[in-house]
Specification:
This protein is mostly helical. Helix content is 66%, strand content 5%. Helix 12 packs antiparallel against helix 15 and helix 15 packs antiparallel against helix 16.
């Protein structure tokens, strides 16, 4: 026990001297968590607060085009900037290149006339099929002129689909109203009352959004709940920079050889490093969780909600930290120089984070990555944290994800022992 305590004291002194390593282990993940949580929180609130700038050029003078403009405003995701009808397409494109707006809509000059004629044709056909209108020769199908939509290339496909859906919804709304008015006027020979039109238009079934949680909670997960666990794991595994370099330094300085001449084993040194850096990973989790709880609300970000099962949270943090420490030791054992340890360690963590779902959500990955994703220890760490933070689960709900992570830890330790024996270090 005395040898272990002495070795732990030595490792703590080495760790406190590594200013760069401490910065990477604590400062970098904190900055990442704050920046990315802020960005994603803004993305989640895009519909309510950060609206998309839209240039609206209405070349039509009819009432239907005005109704379309009102429907776009009510969609809630656009900040509409109206431009003069005299502006050309090139002028509008130049304004978009100048980042005046990312989306532009041009309503053609015959928009209202064609929409009204199209609605009347649909209404007449419906009445004819019902036997109300007998003269099918009077039914004329009129195709409405298309609305031109320009979008800036920087918009990603997901945003474009959201924009297109909002515009299609606005178009469908005004077209449905016109068909309804045509049918009503044909049957009653008078205009559809505004009160009845509004009642019909707003008569939709409500949607009750309920997140699927194991504890029955209806708290909708926010950007903080997604990002804090992810970047906590990222911070844990980035101890490879400090721990891997420490092991390489001991190998190149001859510390391993001196240990073989002493009445001790290098396994004691490995146990010391694991305990020391395991404590560091727990401190990382405590610091980042504390930032999510107390600092994020001050910055206007959602507060981190800690799972009710604190014991399971501690156990998951312990296992994830153990895996991160084991991985760092494995890198240090096989690396020949500190440059190799730092370079390969950093790149491998980024790659494992990418395929593990930390950088990109796992559900959007192609099917070909699903098998590769399960080889990443960060994937199983993330599944454990998400099971607690997002799903409200307990230890009995996430233990199936602990088994693969423990298997990976055992495999890493086997590689460590093989590497040490191959280099005649034990």
């Amino acid at each position: 026990m005395y040898k272990l305590i002495a070795t732990i004291t030595k490792d703590i002194r080495i760790l406190t001297r590594d200013k760069v390593g401490l910065t990477l282990m604590f400062v970098m993940p904190i900055i990442l968590a704050i920046v990315i949580a802020s960005i994603q929180n803004s993305t989640f609130k895009l519909v309510n607060e950060n609206k998309i700038a839209l240039l609206l050029c209405n070349k039509d003078t009819g009432d239907i085009s005005k109704q379309f403009s009102i429907a776009l405003e009510k969609a809630g995701i656009f900040q509409i900037k109206k431009v003069e009808a005299a502006e050309t397409d090139e002028q509008i494109k130049n304004r978009m290149h100048a980042k005046d707006a990312f989306v532009a809509i041009i309503i053609p000059n015959s928009f209202s006339e064609k929409i009204a004629a199209n609605a009347k044709g649909i209404a007449d056909k419906a009445l004819h099929n019902l036997g109300v209108q007998q003269d099918s020769q009077k039914i004329v199908a009129v195709k409405a002129d298309p609305v031109t939509l320009y979008y800036h290339p920087v918009l990603q496909e997901s945003f474009r689909r959201s924009i297109d859906g909002a515009i299609q919804g606005a178009l469908q709304l005004i077209q449905s109203k016109q068909v309804l008015r045509s049918v009503y006027s044909s049957l009653n020979e008078k205009e559809l009352p505004d009160s009845l039109e509004n009642q019909i238009a707003t008569n939709t079934a409500p949607i009750n959004e309920i997140p699927v949680s194991r504890d029955g909670s209806r708290n909708i997960p926010n950007a903080t709940q997604h990002n804090i666990p992810a970047w906590t794991i990222f911070a844990m595994f980035f101890i490879v920079i400090s721990l891997g370099s420490s092991i390489v330094r001991e190998k190149t300085s001859g510390s391993f050889i001196r240990l073989k001449t002493l009445p001790t084993s290098y396994l004691v040194a490995l146990a010391s490093k694991q305990l020391t850096y395991l404590t560091v990973t727990i401190l990382q989790a405590v610091v980042i969780f504390a930032i999510g709880i107390w600092l994020f609300p001050v910055m206007g970000l959602p507060k981190l909600n800690i799972p009710s099962d604190i014991l399971s949270l501690f156990l998951v943090t312990l296992i994830c930290g153990w895996c991160a420490v084991s991985f760092a030791i494995c890198i240090g054992v096989f690396a020949q120089t500190q440059e190799q340890s730092n370079g390969f360690g950093a790149v491998s963590i980024v790659l494992l984070a990418a395929i593990g779902g930390v950088l990109v959500p796992s559900f959007v990955m192609p099917a070909s990555f699903r098998t590769i994703m399960q080889l990443s220890p960060l994937h199983w760490c993330l599944e454990l944290y998400y099971g607690l933070f997002l799903e409200g689960g307990k230890l009995s709900d996430i233990w199936m994800n602990i088994i693969p992570l423990l298997a990976i830890i055992i495999l890493i330790h086997v590689l460590i022992v093989v590497g040490l024996k191959k280099k005649n270090l034990i």
